[in-house]
């Protein structure tokens, strides 16, 4: 039985896409492996959002292709965003690479790889290949979003990602995603509901709805009784028996209407956590970023959501060192962090991306300043996040028990509605169940508790 190794970089979108590819290999009789020596097919699902992510994937693939191997027939492939954006040029960087597939071609990966592997095995290849097959499929595919449903997460998981829309048309000046993920397209609500019902039948209790701007789901559909298509989808999912929790990521202040704020008051299955990228606290920088709103609007939305759901945890993305960012702009970002008191924030140093407007802007910030701001902001973020977590000690929380803890398989790990990881003693609960927990300890970002 041949085996496939899939390595995933980047966001949850990529994780979900890798699951789709994995499920197709499983259906074809392959087994999944973590072992590089064992794998007959090695795929890397790539991210382009920052330069580092691309360098990591390229470096890894270079090493894999150069290693001595007892299996000269191995098929090597790149999938995902870097493939979409760099296409054939990747064969120059890694000549031994066989297959490059883009972000709308995931449903073809299995067939391409399997065909190549079978033909190589049939030819009894026994000398290491120097040059790969150089097959490249990055064309946009009409209606590809309707092929998204053939995805099943690994058996036994009680949480699952569900893609509801793809692509992005915002063209923030720093961002490569619009060119890697194409135009916005939403899946039909009925397909999504059907997929979630099937997931629930297989034991899934929690779904995370994915989209680059997830709240723009069905943006061209009419507003019905004050509710847009996204909120109507949340309401319909809420009706599914057996589904306990609904999350979504990432929303954008554009198209974030009162209906979504209100949803926090009457949809109890909607979790008390939102990952809501802020990017910057300076209006001047937001404008240069082509984010079409003022920071005050962002802050007000956070406060309105907290009013609707007082225990709401808010996490965010922030970019430091965007071209032209002055110390004053940076201080405004820091002030916004202090005002919202995020539960956590990912701080990114601005990374110039090819063919983006910001990469050509004057006043690029030097690495030293980016690093300083990154370090300084993380200190603030961590101080606040830790304080918020410590404040949970002594409280009663409900966690969805996911399975053994990664660091210590003797114990179990789950997540609160606020998406905070909690470790509990092994054997004290069953994976897939939601159990009440008393939090009795906190080490910064991890909570420890006991079932009550
Ligand atoms: N669609 C989401 C973000 C997807 S990219 C949204 O707009 O909310 C994830 C994060 O990567 C972004 O929120 C941003 O903070 C960061 N990012 C994107 N491009 C970047 C770049 N060129 N340099 C540094 N960080 C970047
Ligand atoms: Fe990138 Fe902006 Fe689209 Fe998010 S909204 S994916 S940051 S262009
Ligand atoms: Fe990266 Fe593509 Fe996601 S660029 S962040 S993997 S959409």
Description:
- The chain is an alpha/beta fold and 452 residues long.
- It folds into 4 domains: 3-137, Rossmann fold (3-Layer(aba) Sandwich), CATH 3.40.50.12160; 143-271, 2-Layer Sandwich (Transcription Regulator spoIIAA), CATH 3.30.750.210; 278-293 and 307-391, Transcription Regulator spoIIAA, CATH 3.30.750.200; 396-451, OB fold (Dihydrolipoamide Acetyltransferase, E2P), CATH 2.40.50.
- 34% of the residues lie in helices and 21% in strands.
- It is built from 13 helices and 19 strands.
- The protein has helices at residues 12-27, 51-66, 81-86, 89-93, 106-122, 177-181, 189-201, 229-238, 258-266, 283-288, 295-308, 327-340, 367-390; strands at residues 3-8, 31-32, 41-46, 75-80, 99-101, 135-137, 159-163, 165-166, 185-186, 206-210, 245-249, 273-275, 313-320, 344-349, 396-404, 412-416, 421-424, 434-443, 446-451.
- The strands form 5 sheets. Strands 2-1-3-4-5-6 form a 6-stranded parallel sheet, sandwiched between helices. A 5-stranded mixed barrel has the order 15-16-17-19-18.
- The longest helix has 24 residues, at 367-390.
- The model has no long low-confidence stretch (mean pLDDT 95).
- The structure holds S-adenosyl-L-homocysteine, iron/sulfur cluster and FE3-S4 cluster (F3S).
- Residues 168, 170-172, 175, 177-178, 212-213, 252 line the site of iron/sulfur cluster.
Shape: globular
State the helical fraction.
Answer: 25-40%
| Head-to-tail CA distance between termini | 46 Å
The first-level CATH class name of the largest domain: Alpha Beta
| DSSP strand tally | 19
- Which small-molecule species are bound to the chains here? S-adenosyl-L-homocysteine, iron/sulfur cluster, FE3-S4 cluster
What would you say the CATH architecture of the largest domain is?
3-Layer(aba) Sandwich
CATH superfamily (homologous) name of the largest domain:
Methylthiotransferase, N-terminal domain
The biggest sheet amounts to: 6 strands, parallel
> If strands are numbered along the chain, what order do they take across the biggest sheet?
2-1-3-4-5-6
Annotated CATH topology of the largest domain: Rossmann fold
Helical stretch tally: 13
Task: Indicate the low-confidence ranges by residue numbers.
Answer: none
Could you report the average pLDDT, rounded to the nearest whole number?
Answer: 95
Strand fraction equals 15-25%
Number of domains: 4
Gyration radius, to the nearest Å? 23 Å
**Helix and strand composition category:** alpha/beta
